[in-house]
Amino acid sequence: MNDAVVPTHALEPTLSSLYRDHRSWLEGWLRRRLGNAWDAADLSQDTFLRVLASAPPIAQMQEPRAYLVTVGKRLLVNFHQRRSLEQAYLNALASLPPACVPSPEQRWLLLETLQALDELLGGLPAPVRRAFLWSQLEGLGYREIAERLQVSERTVKRYMAQAYEHCLLVDE
């Protein structure tokens, strides 16, 4: 019988053991939802990076797969939103006359900016986001926004205040 004493820290789960034990399972789970191995591998890596950055101590995780699925689902939603935004942008570009089409570098910068803006406004309710975007990108006044949203101008003012406050708090 081996009476060797195993140090306590060797029994504690670590990120590397979590990664080793669950990475292939998580990638398979993501691959089934995405239909492609490359995006699944990327999202799997992003999931573990999120766990590293913000998770409770790994030793305290009761159900690591449930935690990984929760983080993975959030990343999947972000992934699909980003793809939808990219597709909308590409559709808008396709309708432009050839002389107005931005260069590939400009397209990339614009898409990155759109994604950052989408992420910044992500926590806002849809009407608040729309009001803010119509005001900032289309230059609409509160009355025009109120008509489009079928709400009062007072509500639009409240929406705008909420959006500005959200943007200021996200920066902190």
Give the beta-strand count.
0
Q: Strand percentage, roughly?
A: under 5%
* Gyration radius over CA: 23 Å
Query: What is the CA–CA distance across the termini?
Result: 58 Å
Q: What's the CATH class label of the largest domain? A: Mainly Alpha
Spans where pLDDT lies below 50 across 5 or more residues = 5-12
User: What would you call the structural class?
Assistant: mainly alpha
Query: How many discrete domains?
Result: 2
How would a crystallographer describe the biggest sheet?
none
Tell the overall outline: globular
* Assigned CATH architecture of the largest domain: Orthogonal Bundle
Determine the fraction of residues in helical runs and give it as a percent range: over 70%
Order of SSEs, N→C? HHHHHHHH
Total helices: the number is 8
CATH topology of the largest domain: Rna Polymerase Sigma Factor, Chain: A
* Overall average residue pLDDT: 83
InterPro entries: RNA_pol_sigma-70-like, RNA_pol_sigma-70_dom, RNA_pol_sigma70_r2, RNA_pol_sigma70_r4_t2, RNA_pol_sigma_r2, RNA_pol_sigma_r3/r4-like, WH-like_DNA-bd_sf
Family: Belongs to the sigma-70 factor family. ECF subfamily.
Keywords: Sigma factor, Transcription, Transcription regulation
Protein name: RNA polymerase sigma factor
Account of the protein in words:
The protein is mostly helical. The chain folds into 2 domains: 7-98, Rna Polymerase Sigma Factor, Chain: A (Orthogonal Bundle); 121-172, Winged helix-like DNA-binding domain superfamily/Winged helix DNA-binding domain (Arc Repressor Mutant, subunit A), CATH 1.10.10. The protein is built from 8 helices and no strands. 12% of the residues are buried.
